[in-house]
Amino acid sequence: MSLNEILKLAGERALELKLPYAGALLPAEAYVVWQQAPGAKLVDVRTRPEWEYVGRVPNAVEIEWSSYPGNRPNEHFMTELCAQVDSEALVMFICRSGARSHAAATAAAKRGFSASFNVLQGFEGDRDAAGHRSTLGGWRFAGLPWVQG
Q1: How far apart are CA 17 and CA 95, in angstroms?
Q2: How much is the pTM?
Q3: How big is the CA angle at 66 (ends 94 and 133), to the nearest 5 degrees?
Q4: Which of 3.40.250.10, 3.10.150.10, 1.10.10.60, 3.20.20.60 is the CATH number of 3-119?
Q5: pLDDT tens, residue by residue, 110-145
Q6: How far is CA 69 from CA 16, 31, 104, in A?
């Protein structure tokens, strides 16, 4: 699929799901967009322990949406985002499974990041029947670049 086709599909998902941001991408689509859209950024909003112990996406911008322990909101999230990402850039947010990144994409869109996208399934995807992640979906399951923390 071409970059334009992927972005169109992501926008259609946003309309269908009534999302307050530009679109929703599957992990493999997000990777293509990241590689092909000039200036596109992938922002990983997981916690430091997740980056260190679960794995990192090389060259992603890392800004915690909330901190561990305690799941306290990062009150400096937007300040950090504005310092590291141009508001005119296409920006994709990723977390463990897509929930925190949905919140981050929503917040960014409200602050003028008009090309904000959520990466569905996140880095690890949903849990399977045995309670394990990275077996049903997500960045790692798709075989996309990552490194152990």
Answers
A1: 19
A2: 0.96
A3: 50
A4: 3.40.250.10
A5: 999 999 999 999 999 999 999 998 988 999 999 999
A6: 35, 30, 19
